[in-house]
Amino acid sequence: LMKLQGEELRGEYRRTVELPRPDGTVWRFVIQPLSLGFSRELRRQGITPPARPTRVVRDATGKPLRDGQGLAVLAGDDEKSEYQADLERYHQRMAVLMIAEGLRGDPNVEFSSARPTGEGSWEAYADALIEELEGAGFSAGDVGVLCQEIARMSQLLPEHVKGKRDSFPERREVGFT
For 132-143, what is each residue's pLDDT tens digit? Predict the structure, then answer.
């Protein structure tokens, strides 16, 4: 294990997040930060953003524009409804997988959807988690709050990332050109 000033580092910390309900009750969850390899593991399991569609750029007469090598110039086409639906589905899957990972240390939380082992489908697992959270009465806001708190604990919010980035020396200072 890694040591700091002779002491073994243990990244085992948790905290409680409360979600007030409209009826006055409060749901309490114990969250933990995401592991360092969380995003890499999801990519390895096939949870990736959809490919951005492209279209050929045309001039005023409708002819395709060409670059210096004679190839058609392409532009992103984010307006396609299929792409928008795929992108939304990707973000929903990432959110619920983040929540499932962040709640793994809470002894009071149990998902009926089984985490895949081996060659199981992580997309199907994420879709089952979405249905499970919807069935339990979670709102989009509840999911947002849990994701934000897990990201805060994992130091993934923009202010954390900028702070970490600013603490690194400029490339030229370490011999990069």
Answer: 999 999 999 999
